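anyone seen this seq b4? input:
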Amino acid sequence: MNSVEAKPYPWILHPVLDLVLGCGGIVWLLFGIHLFLLPGNSPDLAKLAAISATGVIIFAEAHTAATFAVVYRNEEVCSRYRFYTGWLAQICFALAVAGMILPSLTPILIKIYLLMVPHHFLAQAFGVAMLYCMKRGYKVGRWERTALLYFVRSVTVYATIRQLTYREWSGDSFLGVEIPFWKVIPDFVTTASEHFMFFSAIILCGLVVVRSFRTGEIMPFPAQLVLITCVSAFVMGPQATGIFWLYVSAFFHGAQYLMIVIAQRIKDAGMPEGMSTHQISRRLLSLAALRFVSLIALITFILYNAVPFVLQHVGVASVGAAAAIFTTVNFFHIITDGALWKLRDPKLREQLVA
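predicted toks r here
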């Protein structure tokens, strides 16, 4: 990859795409319209629901399929991550089959997936926030990084154990399947974790503010917006959370992930001679990018449409099959991505930061 400029490109793909999708701008726009501009009985709410459903198909479902396109893209990568491409894939496939044969297993798989969501969402948001800091030359100091890490982890713990403490945060059903409520965490433990979360937030804000006064440096706005959007998804009240997740699940996490994957793929394929990384958005219509996006779309269609359709016509309950496929594909996606996307990897860091 060639670059005619020394400074890193400050965006992942493009300023508009980054702010609208990668940082959560469209989530806040739709959330604001839903919450403040439309009454509860407005027919326009159905339009917003349709917009959300479209986002789920385009971004949420596609981003899990993208993991397969990344980890199986060539023999070298398959070999490097052979545990994930081999054993983990087989385990997830076996769980999917077991969920279809034993309907009572599927709710448990869904429950486990929902418990994994806070860590998965927040870990990605933390990595993307760090990426924006690197791209803009904002060097996160040891204490600041530790405070941010503890804050993100405190939100993760709180959002996870809250599902194991209060029924209203556990949910009654998901993908048409009734899910169990497991109360295994005492109330006082969740309350304590909530207090620690707020304490961590105060420490982090204090460090950021002190640095801004001392050096004049302010954490990049995209990094702040990424963290605020993701954290808000787990700390709002019940009613606001339900509305917010309608758009977070459709237009934030999955879209953010696809942007990173596509940007890395474009750079990995090589930029034309003399082209700056500032022109990366122009490569979205390149043959390599279009092939990659088409491959993701094909995998998404097979996993979430073709396979359930075939199973339904051979007598497997469509709802249970779809839920089993969704959860096990996400198991593979979440666990594999934990190995794939590490900014500590020099080659990956160089590609993403450039």
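Residues 166 and 183 are 7 Å apart (CA to CA). Residues 15-353 form one domain. kinda curious what u guys think
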